Automatic annotation (TrEMBL):
Keyword Iron carried by entry: no
Keywords, in A-Z order: Kinase, Transferase
Upper classification of the organism: Bacteria, Bacillati, Actinomycetota, Actinomycetes, Pseudonocardiales
Family to which the UniProt record says this protein belongs: Belongs to the ROK (NagC/XylR) family.
MF terms in GO: kinase activity
Protein name (database record): Kanamycin kinase
Transmembrane segments: none
Native species: Actinosynnema pretiosum
Annotated InterPro entries: ATPase_NBD (IPR043129), ROK (IPR000600)
């Protein structure tokens, strides 16, 4: 997997339950691979799966640059200091591990939410945008003037508190958006109301049948996301709020429900952002990682 000044680029999107890899060769041809992490697996086991994913995607040689989207908190040297979704990764040198897979290639990282926002803004042709990705957690980013707005860190939109004393978030606080709107949070909310969903598909079917446990769990998620959009809108005035991630794919009614709530929270002289589904779907962070690998904006 050696690097080359004229070689291809690789995008890697590390998630709480899976990793996605896309290799784009110098000739423009691309290959994709996805691996799912085993629950409770060590970072070493995860990395071994990632190596195989890279090989399947065609990253066996001639790679000049790698961009990696990371949901974890990294220090300046690229070492994981916190990742509630994969606690076994704490202490892992992510940049070093990726560098070992691609000797000679440059490896750059960015927050997955920031990179997703950058990719979505580029696809939408909008320089003032809020992106929210809803999956195992809730992340996202803000683009202002065509650049990520993060003051040298990441925009932790999923940890904006929307209800004091609300549900416990895995960050240790109560009432974060993530505690209401992430995939696991929606499932917990459904179970707390007497449902027995095996996954988000069951929640979607429950909503279609009008089951209270499903409808109310989704309403909680939509209300939390709407509060986030309104709060950000009062601070930085994005034109668009795009909501994506795997949960929005599984629950297609979620984004319209958020849009309806946001529209109802406008005030005279202060227009609210237009809420739409993200156009890149669950691959926005992966697209952003490729933007980074090609030399786009970093953090």
């Amino acid at each position: 997997m050696s690097g080359s000044g004229t070689g291809g680029v690789v995008g890697v999107d590390l998630g709480g339950t899976k990793a996605a890899v896309r290799v784009v060769g110098a000739d423009g041809r691309s290959g994709d691979s996805v691996v799912r992490w085993e629950s409770g697996a060590s970072a070493g086991e995860d990395l071994a799966l990632l190596v195989r994913a890279v090989e399947r995607a065609g990253g066996g040689g001639g790679v000049r640059s790698v961009g990696v989207a990371v949901p974890a908190t990294l220090d300046r040297s690229g070492v994981v200091v916190a990742w509630p979704g994969r606690p076994g990764w704490v202490g892992v040198d992510v940049l070093g591990a990726l560098g070992a897979m691609f000797p000679g290639a440059s490896v750059r990282h960015g927050d997955d939410g920031d990179l997703a926002a950058l990719a979505e803004a580029d696809a939408a042709g909008c320089g003032e945008l809020l992106y929210v990705g809803v999956g195992t957690g809730v992340g996202g980013g803000i683009v202002s003037g065509g650049l990520p707005l993060n003051s040298g860190g990441s925009c932790e939109v999923g940890h904006v508190v929307v209800e004091r004393g609300g549900g416990l978030c895995d960050c240790g606080r109560r009432g974060c958006v993530q505690a209401f709107a992430s995939g696991p949070a929606i499932l917990r909310g459904a179970v707390a109301r007497g449902g027995r969903p095996g996954g988000l598909g069951d929640v979607r079917d429950g909503v279609a049948r009008g089951e209270r446990w499903a409808v109310e769990a989704c309403e909680d998620a939509a209300s939390a996301l709407a509060a986030l959009v309104i709060g950000v809108g009062e601070l930085v005035r994005p034109e668009l709020a795009l909501i994506g991630g795997g949960v929005t794919t599984a629950l297609p009614g979620l984004v319209p429900a958020v849009a309806e709530r946001v529209a109802g929270l406008g005030r005279t002289g202060h227009p609210v952002p237009s809420v739409r589904p993200a156009v890149l779907g669950a691959e926005s962070s992966l697209h952003g990682a490729l933007v980074l690998a090609r030399g786009g904006n970093r953090e």
